[in-house]
Specification:
single chain; about 260 residues; mainly alpha; about 5% strand
Length: about 260
């Protein structure tokens, strides 16, 4: 059985007062170092949150398929692409909306701010509980978007705002959890790592499997989302995203090390 990897111990300094000396005087306050045991990791360096995060990555591909193909060429998960689209729209290129892209960007940022505030509440909890709560909130937002899509599919800006808010909340949380090579919404650095750390580049291919699975997960989500949008409209793919996020929440282990 592989040994658990050990992280360097955290060191904090705590003031401790010494006892009274034999001459009756009190020495100055001294500082001692206390070593805290490191958080335990899974055996073999495995990351227990990976199944949930890979499922969420597939949902991101699905959400961007919905937003780009069904909501007026806007990205609500991939903000790099969305910023580029704002530039296209501002230049007057047909088929792109400045307003839709700005709504997406604003809602995403609000979600990211909410993720930062959530950290202040969850920072002393395990990363599992933190991620699970975030995914539950994302599921609620996507369920609301699903209801809106079935009731009033023309409410484009409401759908953009709800999905971008959900993606911003999740992206902000995943960034703070800092699982290597897993962002769930973008692949630029993942693909860069695959190439620059590869054998032809003189590297050792660290976490190559994780990186490849991330790419395939997003590709699969985008493919499925595109098919659903083309053949069923917006409600059903949003429902699929809601169930996908629920599956991701269920895939979070009941306990893991604190981040």
């Amino acid at each position: 059985m592989p040994a658990a990897s050990v992280q360097p111990a955290r060191r904090t300094r705590s003031p401790v007062r010494a006892t009274q000396t034999e001459h009756g005087s009190w020495p100055k306050e001294t500082t001692v170092t206390i070593n805290h045991p490191p958080a335990q990791r899974a055996p073999g360096g495995r990351e227990p949150l990976l199944p949930a995060l890979m499922t969420a990555t597939a949902v991101s591909g699905l959400i961007d398929a919905i937003s780009y193909l069904g909501l007026g060429h806007v990205f609500t998960a991939n903000m790099t692409g969305n910023v580029v689209i704002i530039g296209f729209a501002a230049a007057g290129v047909p088929g792109f909306s400045v307003l839709g892209s700005l709504v997406s960007l604003a809602a995403f940022l609000v979600g990211a701010v909410a993720a930062g505030r959530l950290e202040t509440v969850m920072r002393h909890r395990t990363s599992s509980r933190w991620l699970r709560l975030t995914l539950v909130l994302e599921m609620v937002l996507l369920a609301t978007a699903t209801a809106v899509a079935f009731a009033a599919s023309h409410a484009v800006h409401a759908l953009i705002a709800l999905t971008a808010l959900a993606m911003g909340l999740r992206n902000g949380t995943v960034r703070k959890l800092a699982v290597p090579d897993v962002t769930t919404t973008v692949l630029t650095l993942t693909l860069t790592g695959l190439a620059s750390d590869s054998t032809p580049a003189g590297g050792t291919n660290p976490r190559a499997g994780r990186r490849l699975v991330s790419v395939l997960a997003m590709l699969t989500g985008a493919f499925g989302g595109a098919l659903l949008v083309q053949h069923t409209g917006l409600g059903w793919p949003l429902l699929a995203g809601t169930f996908g996020t629920a599956a991701a929440a269920l895939a979070v282990p009941r306990s893991s090390s604190s981040s």
